[in-house]
Amino acid sequence: MQLLLFGPPGVGKGTQAKLLSEAFNIPHISTGDLLRKAVASGTPLGRQAKAIMDAGGLVPDDIMIGIVRDMLASPAVARGFILDGFPRTLPQAKALSRIFEELGIRDFKVIEFAVDDEEVIRRITSRLVCTKDNGVYNRDVDGLAAGDPCPSCGTPLAQRDDDREETVRERLKLYHSTTAPIIHFYTSSGVVIKVDGAGSIDVVSREIKVLLRGSGKQ
Q: Does residue 112 lie in a domain region?
């Protein structure tokens, strides 16, 4: 089983990826983790990426695509994979299609998590974090507010700058402008499965499995 996950920030892709990974015993591939692993391992592409990052630059597409290709060609993903965080742009999607063709990966599915922007904003702006133990809490669910003591260690809880409404709205604009063309690209191939991401974790998880079963992936 080969799956690509798409969805706006705060939609719960990481949580669902973990559940799918456990359910089907296939690795969850986060491109951020891939990049850190390549750098730590000192691979040729990792060394190139480290030099650019150390200079304050952004890792270019060709290096990131190469790192993804190396992983997809490895025995670790022989039974399948869940790719999260890549591709982020249409050129990356086209490059990934060439990699899939080269490696004989044809029976893949794209899971698109659909959530209304205002719901995304509500979810993200409700997050509070502990700066000491990195615990994450929800203002609405846990009945906490910024400045309240962390339930675990007592450190005052705070809202991250990335979780403020104006920042979230900008992140959503970027997501829609860069991701919409990718979804259209994959939709034309008939591989997109659209999931209502507004439900609870369990409800969304069940919906994904039902849709995958209906598509012949289980």
A: yes
Token pair for residue 145?
């507010």
- Contact of 94 with 181, CB cutoff 8 Å: no
d(CA 113, CA 194): 6
Active site residues: 13, 88, 127, 160, 171
| C-alpha–C-alpha distance, residues 174 and 154, integer Å | 36
Domain that holds residue 110: 2-26+79-116+166-214
Tens-place pLDDT, residues 17-47: 999 999 999 999 988 888 888 899 898 999 9
Identity of residue 210: V
Domain count, the chain: 1
Q: Is 178 within a domain? A: yes
In angstroms, the CA 134 to CA 137 distance is: 10
Q: Which CATH number does the domain housing residue 171 bear?
A: 3.40.50.300
How far is it, in rounded angstroms, from Cα 114 to Cα 198? 7
Tens digit of each residue's pLDDT (9 = 90 or more) over 99-123: 999 999 998 999 999 999 999 999 9
71-90 average pLDDT score: 92
Residue 100 phi/psi, 5° resolution? -60, -45
